[in-house]
């Protein structure tokens, strides 16, 4: 054993297909939508629906959507997460080893932990890149990490970055980023719309704090900006009732009222299909078709300076006592 104790940081985001092709999307969706944290219908009921219906229709539609946002570096979510890991490595220096993993698809969590441990990291901080806690996202990452550790004879010590929905460093980063985005527009939006990923309404009744944490983020940001921030929830999936109001319904209503709007997605650490295609492409079309005046989509924190300053602050705080 080496004398020095190495520290690893594992950034984790949701994951994305390897290619904007139906077969790759099918593999990705099969893993994602089989996670019982994501779809809470008993598997005996759900798996036949997933295999017989969802995975025979959705991959083609989703692949079409992915193709519209795909870049030379691959899926935006993968490219941005890698850029965040690289920038964090530069900021924290060689004494701390930064890696990233995806909850679904590649690079997978288990092998990423093995690589950190193999490189001598016997302390690992896992940072799920979700500001608002949600069973489907945060808890699913914790499940996957701890399941992997359950298979190890020699386990590293673990820490998890807590959700940061109300953290002053997060609110400050959003404020700087949103103000810069607004300053670059050639119009003044009537409405600033914060669009968070939706969840089944039932999860809120059962005690998931996600909805309340989204509201907390929006309220604190509104106070910091000194202006109203409207909240809506996007990306409805399936037939159940989801959190409301729905982003699509709000964009339609604001469009019909002839308003101008700036939309942003504070719950996503990195731009991805759900922001670039659903908001920036489809959202804009929906809004202008309904009669809306001006539309802007403001990017996520990504690997820009406010976002990286935030990640550095959060990670350094969690590493206190380990260094
Ligand atoms: C940021 C928080 C997210 C929550 C909460 C969340 C819940 C959730 N999502 C689905 C179904 C789908 N989500 C999809 C993509 C997707 N979702 C998130 C984040 C959250 N999801 C991200 C970052 C992405 C983008 C991935 C990318 O490749 O860019 C998809 C796949 C795309 C599609 O086919 O539409 C599905 C499906 C459910 C059911 C759910 C909660 C129950
Ligand atoms: Fe999602
Ligand atoms: Fe979507």
Features of the shown structure:
single chain; 323 residues; alpha/beta; Rossmann fold; four-stranded parallel beta sheet; 12 helices; 8 strands; 15% strand; binds the ligand C=CC1=C(C)c2cc3[nH]c(cc4nc(cc5[nH]c(cc1n2)c(C)c5CCC(=O)O)C(CCC(=O)O)=C4C)c(C)c3C=C; binds fe (ii) ion; iron; metal-binding
Report on this structure.
The chain is of the alpha/beta class and 323 residues long. Among the domains are: 17-74, no CATH class; 168-298, Rossmann fold (3-Layer(aba) Sandwich), CATH 3.40.50.1400. Helices cover 49% and strands 15% of the residues. It has 12 helices and 8 strands. The strands form 2 sheets. It has a 4-stranded parallel sheet with strand order 2-1-3-4, with helices on both faces. α3 (76-92) crosses α12, α6 crosses α8 (210-225) and α9 packs parallel to α11. Its EC number is 4.98.1.1. It catalyses: Fe-coproporphyrin III + 2 H(+) = coproporphyrin III + Fe(2+); heme b + 2 H(+) = protoporphyrin IX + Fe(2+). Pathway: Porphyrin-containing compound metabolism; protoheme biosynthesis; protoheme from protoporphyrin-IX: step 1/1.
CATH names the topology of the domain at 168-298 as Rossmann fold
The strand order across the widest sheet is 2-1-3-4
The helix-strand sequence is: EHHHEHEHEHEHHEHEHHEH
What is the 3D shape?
A: globular
**Mind telling me the CATH class of the domain at 168-298?**
Alpha Beta
Low-confidence stretches: none
Please estimate the helix content. 40-55%
Q: Terminal Cα separation, in Å?
A: 19 Å
Structural class of the secondary structure composition? alpha/beta
Based on DSSP secondary structure assignment, what is the total number of beta strands?
8
Ligand inventory reads: the ligand C=CC1=C(C)c2cc3[nH]c(cc4nc(cc5[nH]c(cc1n2)c(C)c5CCC(=O)O)C(CCC(=O)O)=C4C)c(C)c3C=C, fe (ii) ion
Query: Helical stretch count?
Result: 12
Radius of gyration based on Cα positions: 20 Å
Q: What is the overall pLDDT average?
A: 97
């Amino acid at each position: 054993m080496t004398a020095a104790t190495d520290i690893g940081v594992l950034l984790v985001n949701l994951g994305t297909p390897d290619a904007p092709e139906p077969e790759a999307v099918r593999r990705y969706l099969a893993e994602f939508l089989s996670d019982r944290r994501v779809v809470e219908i008993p598997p005996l009921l759900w798996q036949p629906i997933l295999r017989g219906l969802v995975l025979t229709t959705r991959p083609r539609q989703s692949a079409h959507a992915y193709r519209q946002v795909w870049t030379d570096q691959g899926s935006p979510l993968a490219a941005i997460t890698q850029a965040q890991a690289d920038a964090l490595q530069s900021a924290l220096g060689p004494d701390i080893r930064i890696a990233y993993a995806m909850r679904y698809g590649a690079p997978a969590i288990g092998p990423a932990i093995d690589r950190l441990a193999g490189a001598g990291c016997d302390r690992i901080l896992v940072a799920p890149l979700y500001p608002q806690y949600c069973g489907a996202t945060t808890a699913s990452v914790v499940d996957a990490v701890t399941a992997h550790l359950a298979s190890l004879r020699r386990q590293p010590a673990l820490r998890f970055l807590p959700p940061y929905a109300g953290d002053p460093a997060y609110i400050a980063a959003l404020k700087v980023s949103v103000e810069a985005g607004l300053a670059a527009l050639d119009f003044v939006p009537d409405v600033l719309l914060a669009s968070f990923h939706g969840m089944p309404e039932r999860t809120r009744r059962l005690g998931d704090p996600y909805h309340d944490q989204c509201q907390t983020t929006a309220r604190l940001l509104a106070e910091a900006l000194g202006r109203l921030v409207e909240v809506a929830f996007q990306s409805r999936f399936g037939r159940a009732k989801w959190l409301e109001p729905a982003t699509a319904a709000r964009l339609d209503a604001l469009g019909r009222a002839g308003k101008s709007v700036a939309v942003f997605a504070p719950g996503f650490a990195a731009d991805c299909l759900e922001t670039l295609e659903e908001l920036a492409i489809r959202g804009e079309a929906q809004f202008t078709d309904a009669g809306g005046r001006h539309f802007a989509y403001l990017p996520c924190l990504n690997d820009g300076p406010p976002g990286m300053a935030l990640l550095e602050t959060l990670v350094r705080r969690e590493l206190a006592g380990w260094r």
